[in-house]
UniProtKB/TrEMBL annotation:
InterPro entries: Homeodomain-like_sf, HTH_TetR. It holds the Pfam family TetR_N. It comes from the Bacteria. It comes from Halobacillus shinanisalinarum. Residues 11-71 form the HTH tetR-type domain. Keywords: DNA-binding. The keyword DNA-binding applies. This is TetR/AcrR family transcriptional regulator. The keyword Magnesium does not apply. Residues 34-53 bind DNA.
Length: 236
């Protein structure tokens, strides 16, 4: 079999297993996904599934990616609301918080759980098969989506705020890492039911913490240019 036909076969098998995994997630939840259930639904054996996915965590990761399509499509619309890089970055966080706290198990699998492998490699493989997921996204946002580590994604985008005079270069890594830890902390709190937060409360609290953190490093003379407010009473 030629290399081209092998790639076509690989993509076809991926789709079979991911279609099956998606169906299991939709009907039983991602916590109830097993290789056997997926293989049975796809019409293959578990050993065949392992020929294409190293372990269950990888298959769950790829299946979970399908459930982020609405977030990826909505992200540019949120960022358009901002008038400068810091505002756009905050709106990007609002969009991410909205979708991640509505589906915490899905986003935890992608951004928190141990995958036993390099996430960037998994993402690159995913988008080789599902190239259409990126069609229509601005090139800058495509690069952010492809960068798995949230802190790095934040740093990639908010870098422009340095040239705009909002933030100093030395604070980029700090604010990117801090905001990631804030989101992960709230996500873990919600998933472990340590606090009885509603989805909107979790979103608002996380955005408030993120907003306060970034405002600490924004140049005082530029703060008045940031009109973003972290608490939203009516979310779309």
């Amino acid at each position: 079999m030629s290399a081209g036909r092998k790639e076509i076969q690989r993509a076809r098998m991926w789709r079979y297993f991911l279609d099956a995994a998606t169906d299991v997630i939709e009907n039983e939840g991602i916590d109830n996904v097993t290789i056997r259930k997926i293989a049975d639904k796809a019409g293959y054996t578990s050993s065949t599934a392992y020929n294409y996915f190293q372990d269950l965590s990888h298959l769950k990761f790829f299946a979970a990616m399908r459930f982020t399509k609405d977030y990826i499509e909505d992200l540019p619309h949120y960022m358009e609301k901002g008038n400068n890089t810091v505002e756009k970055w905050l709106y990007a966080w609002e969009c991410f918080c909205k979708y991640s706290f509505e589906q915490p198990q899905i986003y935890s699998v992608i951004f928190i759980n141990n995958l036993g492998s390099i996430p960037e490699d998994l993402l690159e493989n995913y988008y080789k098969v599902y190239q259409n997921d990126l069609i229509g996204l601005p090139e800058q946002i495509q690069s952010i989506v492809m960068e798995h580590t949230l802190s790095t994604r934040s740093a990639l985008y908010i870098q422009d705020a340095v040239e705009e005079g909002f933030i100093e270069q030395k604070d980029i890594e700090f604010i990117a890492d801090t905001t990631l830890l804030l989101w992960k902390g709230m996500m873990t709190t919600v998933m472990n039911q340590r606090r009885n937060y509603s989805v909107d409360e979790a979103i608002d609290r996380t955005l408030d913490y993120i907003y306060e953190s970034v405002m600490r490093v924004v140049s005082p003379e530029k703060r008045k240019e940031i009109a973003f407010h972290p608490v939203r009473n009516n979310r779309s």
